[in-house]
Write a structure and sequence with these properties.
single chain; Rossmann fold; two-stranded antiparallel ribbon; 5 helices; globular; Universal stress protein UspA family protein; Rossmann-like_a/b/a_fold
């Protein structure tokens, strides 16, 4: 079907987001920072509540860290402190309502199964490590961003650095 004015007659409504969730990752600070900056701007302009989540990846821990409750608590506390820095910065940049989340597990599945049902965002913002394939010049998004985009019950915006 060819596009013409006749079949494009509809009203465009302003549909602001009321709840924005952003995933930040300690391991990929550059794309996480870009995603965070975008989410803060989006939340501020829409006067939306902002959720900030970071997941402690248990696979990244060595055996001692994984088996030691004290060490896991220490690492989790450090992650929570990092999220609280993001919360503080978001508030300083005009976002009135901000909530931080920390969980353990595989990042994308944990965000889908635990954080999204709790926070109920309209949109999820995440960063992506970009992989270039030289021969075809294709760009692929990272596996976590891809999983989130394919499985999230809300819209997903993938921000590249």
């Amino acid at each position: 079907m060819a596009v013409n004015e006749k079949n494009l007659q509809f009203e465009i409504e302003d549909k602001p987001f009321s709840r924005v969730l952003v995933a930040v990752d300690q391991d990929d600070s550059s794309s996480s920072i870009k995603a965070f900056q975008f989410a803060v701007t989006l939340a501020s302009r829409n006067k939306a509540k902002l959720g900030i989540v970071s997941i402690l990846e248990l696979e990244d821990l060595n055996v001692f860290e994984a088996l030691s409750p004290e060490k896991r608590n220490e690492i989790s506390s450090s992650l929570l402190a990092d999220v609280n820095v993001y919360v503080k910065i978001a508030k300083e940049h005009g976002v009135k309502e901000v909530e931080g989340f920390v969980a353990e597990g595989k990042p994308a599945p944990t965000i889908i199964s635990d954080i999204i049902p709790t926070f109920k965002p309209d949109v999820l913002v995440c960063g992506s490590k970009t992989k270039h394939v030289s021969k075809r010049e294709k760009i692929f998004i990272g596996s976590q961003a891809s999983y989130l985009a394919q499985n999230s019950p809300c819209s997903v915006l993938v921000i590249r650095k």
